[in-house]
Amino acid sequence: MIVADVTGSIKRFRRTPWRFQATFSTPLRKLGDFSSTILSSLGDVREGILVIDSVVFEPRHLIDLLQRNGLAGEVARDRSITAVGPRELGELLEAALGDWVDFALVPSPKPFVLYADHDEFTTFFANTKSNLNGVVQPLAARGFREVVGFAREF
């Protein structure tokens, strides 16, 4: 894992136009299954960059994860954490979803990106309907609840 500060990255993320989106309730009691379903929809994911938008309460899961990986530092706005490989990315996504933080996650390759907030909503953005369906259908098939009619606007 790599931690860096990238000033303005959330601002750029918010300005990026996306043609399609879908939002799911973040299931706090099933974060491992939720995260693994998201990652499995990515296929051969190489890495992912998680960028913090805001921190509501102390992000204990993220802090613990960083410390276990020999990294120190504050978790704050515009701080990015790069995870390499599916295992690291799964740990990072699960930790962030379990904390009271708002963040964006950009995987590579990038069929979609996601934005999760401390209100327990995870929104997936894509430029094609098929890329969006690539994550929405597996999540729905596993019983995760889509928030129909919700449109995230920045």
| β-sheet strand percentage | 25-35%
List the uncertain runs: none
Average pLDDT figure? 93
User: What is the helix/strand order?
Assistant: EHEHEHEHEEEH
Number of strands: 7
- Global geometry: globular
What structural category do the secondary elements indicate? alpha+beta
Oligomeric form of this entry?
single chain
Read across the widest sheet, the strand sequence of neighbours is: 1-4-3-5-6-7-2
**Helicity, in percent?**
25-40%
User: What's the tally of helices?
Assistant: 5
The radius of gyration over CA amounts to 14 Å
Kindly give the count of domains. 1
- Main beta sheet: 7 strands, antiparallel
Please give a structural write-up.
- This protein has a 7-stranded antiparallel β-sheet, with helices on both faces.
- It has one domain (2-141).
- It is built from 5 helices and 7 strands; from the N terminus they run βαβαβαβαβββα.
- It is α+β, with helices and mostly antiparallel strands and 154 residues long.
- The chain has helices at 9-15, 31-40, 60-68, 85-97, 129-141; strands spanning 2-5, 20-25, 47-55, 79-84, 101-108, 113-117, 121-126.
- It is globular and about 40 Å long.
- It is 34% helix and 29% strand.
